[in-house]
C-alpha cells in the first residue's frame, strides 16, 4: 500500500538532516516533501528508513512530538486511575519501540515490548540504547504468536496500542486471551486507538465512508477506485493486515467475560469527553471541521447520557476509535476467606 519515496540522510556532526521526497503521510496529512533533523545515529536512521519508508518522520514523531502518543497515553492512564510508575508493562505490537520507551520514561519498572516483525525488534533495541533506557526496556520477537514466552500473571499492565485492527479477525480472540493470561490479578489491560468496526467511516486504512459496512470484496474494489491509499496490488488479506476491519467493544470483552473481568468503561463513564479531549486539540484543522467535531461531541454526549448509560453500554462502543480499560479482579484465597 505504500508508494516508494526517496529518503536522503545527511550527517551534520551532532545531528542528521533527513529529507523525504514523494507522497507520504505525517500525522495523517499527505505531503510531498518533509525535512527534519534527528539526533539518532546514521545507522539507526538508515534502519528506520528501510523499515518505515515514507512513514519515517511519522515514526520519529512518535517520540519527539508529545501530542502523538505520550500525552494521550498519560491522559488515558490518569482517566482510569492507573499508575505506570513502578509497574511491569507488556507493550504488545511494540513496533520500532516508541511506546515502550515512553512507558519507561514515565517510570515503568520494566517494559517488555513484543512484535512479530524481527526487523522492528532489532531497530527497537538499538533505539532504546540511543535513548538511554535499554536497562529498563526489553524487546522480544514473537515467533509463535500470539504466545508470549512469559509466565502467567507476569505484568501489571498490558497495552495494545493501535494493534488489534492489524490482527486478522479470526485470530483476535486468541490474542486477547493470551494478554489476559499474562495479566496479574488487579492488573489492567488497555486496548487503545483501534478503529471502531461499527463507525461508518474507515479513517484508518482507506479514508472512505461506508467501507466498514461493506463485504470485503466490495470494500476492496471500492477502495481501489476511490482511495489514493489503496492500489490494485493490495489483496483482501493485505487490507486486513493494514487495518481495514476495526474491532468492536463486544469483540474485545466477549473472550474475557467471567467473574474476573471488570469493565471500567461501563463503571467510570466519560468516554465521550475523554475521546474529544485530544480530538479537538489537533492542530491545523479548519473551522468547519472543528465545528463538526464540537457538534458530534454534543450529540454523542447526549446519546451517552440518555440512552447508553441507562442500558449499561459504554460510550466507547459508538466512538470512531476504541479506548478500552479492563481489569482482572483480585480473588480471595481460601485462607483469606476463612
Give your account of this protein's structure.
By secondary structure, the protein is α/β, with parallel strands linked by helices. It folds into 2 domains: 6-64, no CATH class; 70-197 and 246-328, 3-Layer(aba) Sandwich (Rossmann fold), CATH 3.40.50.150. Helices cover 38% and strands 23% of the residues. It has 13 helices and 12 strands. It has helices spanning 42-52, 56-64, 70-79, 98-105, 118-130, 172-181, 216-226, 236-242, 249-253, 264-268, 271-279, 287-311, 334-337; strands at 6-11, 16-26, 29-38, 88-92, 110-115, 137-141, 155-161, 183-195, 201-202, 208-209, 261-263, 321-328. The strands form 3 sheets. It has a 7-stranded mixed β-sheet with strand order 6-5-4-7-8-12-11. The model has no long low-confidence stretch (mean pLDDT 94).
Topology:
Layout: E1 6-11, E2 16-26, E3 29-38, H1 42-52, H2 56-64, H3 70-79, E4 88-92, H4 98-105, E5 110-115, H5 118-130, E6 137-141, E7 155-161, H6 172-181, E8 183-195, E9 201-202, E10 208-209, H7 216-226, H8 236-242, H9 249-253, E11 261-263, H10 264-268, H11 271-279, H12 287-311, E12 321-328, H13 334-337
Parallel strand pairs: 4-5, 4-7, 5-6, 7-8
Antiparallel strand pairs: 1-2, 2-3, 8-12, 9-10, 11-12
